[in-house]
Amino acid sequence: MAVPGSRVSGSPPADVAGSELFATDAYLRSFDSTVLEVDREQGRVVLARTAFYPGGGGQPHDVGELTWLGAAVPVTRVRREGGRIWHWLDVPELPESGTEVLGTLDWSRRHLLMRTHTALHILCGVIWSEFQIPVTGGNMDPGKGRLDFPLESMSAELGQRVEVRINEEIQRAREIVVEFLGRSAADLDESLIRTAANLIPREIDPLRVIDIVGLDRQADGGTHVANTADVGSVVVTGTESKGKGNKRIRLEVRDAQA
Fold it and tell me: How is residue 24 annotated by DSSP?
C-alpha cells in the first residue's frame, strides 16, 4: 500500500517538494518549520514549509496548532494568497520572523477530509465509466460532499446504483498514488479530459495528478487516502436536479461496513 506521495511518478517542482509537504505526503501529521513572514495586522504567518493544506478544489483548509517556546497556539485558517501559504493564529502575540515552530494537524479532521475527497473521486470515476461525462462542480465538508454532472436526468434509483458501485470500488482496495505530469504530456492524455485540465493555468507545469489506479485519474491539488479501502463506506444521501443538464449527487462517508 503506497502513501500518496511515497510513490511519486515524475518530479515535483522543487518549491513544492521543499515547502508544500501535503503535496507529496498526505499522511504527515506534524512537521518542523521556521517562520518566514509575519503579518501582525491580520494575525497570520508564512512558514518555510508546511503540511497544512490551504484549501482549494472544494476541499476545506486544515486546522491544527503551531508550537513555539513551549506554547501551542491554534491555527484557525490557512489560505494561499499571492503565491504564499498564510496561517492565521489565535494568539495576541505572533512569533518573530526566524522563530522555529512545530506544526501539528488536527488529524481526525484531516483524515476524514481525505476519505471524503477520495470518495468523491470514486464517484467521479463511476459516473465516467457509465456515462463518459465530466464533473462540473463540487464541494465537501468533513464526512460529506457533493458533485454535479451534466446528466440529462436524475433519479433515486440511479443514486442507489451509484452507491453500490462506489462501495464495490472501495472494497476492491485500489491503490492511490500521486503523479507529476508535464503539461505537454497532460495535453495529450485523454484520460484527463474529465478534469478540464486545459482550464488550469499554463504556468502550472507539471500538473499534480491523483491516480486511483484502474478507475480515476485527475489533476488535483488536494489530499487523499492511500487506498480506496481506507475510505470505509459511502452512502448516497441525495440526488437533485439543479436544472437542465445539471444533476447533483450527495454522499456521506461512514466507517467500513461489518
Answer: T
Q: CB neighbours (10 Å) of residue 168?
A: 12
Most confident of 74-83, 174-183, 184-193: 74-83
**CB-count burial class (<10 Å; 0-12, 13-18, 19+) for 79:** middle
Residues 152 and 204 in one domain: yes
The average pLDDT across 205-227 equals 92
CA-nearest of 214, 139, 208, 224 to 172 is 214
Nearest to 251 by CA among 163, 189, 187, 153: 163
Q: Domain holding 138: CATH number? A: 3.30.980.10
C-alpha cell of 116?
Answer: 471524503
Instruction: List the strands of the sheet with 176-181, edge to edge.
Output: 8-9, 176-181, 207-212, 216-219
Contact 216, 228 (CB under 8 A): no
The Cα–Cα gap between 29 and 246 comes to 38
Sheet holding 233-241, edge to edge: 137-141, 144-149, 247-254, 233-241
Give the DSSP letter string of 73-105: EEEEEEEEETTEEEEEE-SSSPPPTT-EEEEEE
Summarised one tens digit per residue, pLDDT across range 23-63 is 999 999 999 999 999 999 999 999 999 999 999 989 999 99
Give the helix/strand (H/E) hosting 36.
Answer: strand 30-39
C-alpha cell at 198: 486545459
Can you give the residue range of the structural domain that contains 18? 14-105
pLDDT given for residue 205 in this prediction: 76
Q: How far apart are CA 109 and CA 101, in angstroms?
A: 21
CATH of the domain at 63: 2.40.30.130
